[in-house]
Amino acid sequence: MYENVVKEAFEAMKCSYAPYSGYHVGACVLCRDGRMFRGVNVENASYGATNCAERSALFAAVSWGVRREQIEALAIVSDGRRIGMPCGICRQVFSELLDEKTPVILSNGEQTITLTAGELLPYRFSAEDLQ
User: Which of 105, 104, 37 is nearest to 66 (CA)?
Assistant: First the structure.
């Protein structure tokens, strides 16, 4: 069902900047209107300055005015032996920028699984906690 967004994520992965880990990740946000926004992991010698592919894609979409209700799906792909799972920071960003029912497609080219943003972070901290 989401073959095109996964394909775009694999295309994006070709631009990954991973000179330290050698672990390449690509991501793509699919909007309900058909627009797609790519992102890649961008490493830095100061690891804290590194950015994950999924955040890069989501931040690109937000930079173009996309909001959570406009996002249909997010694909995240990697070249690892196992399917790469989003880190904790990315999961927290999902809780802010994705609806909890948004499909997140994860693939390494050999295996693919789909989870929802809510399944990836079931007990999230959100704006509702700040009221």
Answer: 37
Statement: the pTM of the whole predicted model exceeds 0.90: yes
- Using alpha carbons, select from 28, 7, 11 the residue that is nearest to residue 104: 28
36-40, strands of its sheet edge to edge: 36-40, 25-31, 71-78, 103-107, 112-116
Tokens linked to 60: 């690109």
Distance, CA of 40 to CA of 38 (rounded, Å): 7
Residues with Cβ within 8 Å of 36's Cβ and at least 6 positions away in sequence, in order, are: 4, 5, 8, 28, 29, 30
Catalytic residues: 54
Q: Which residues does residue 105 pair with via DSSP β-bridges, in sequence order?
A: 75, 114
pLDDT at 126 over 90: no
Interatomic CA distance for residues 37 and 52, integer angstroms: 14
Q: Give how far Cα 31 sits from Cα of 22, 61, 91, 110, 124, Å.
A: 30, 9, 19, 25, 23
Closest alpha carbon to 61 in 5, 118, 127:
5
The pLDDT of residue 40 is 98
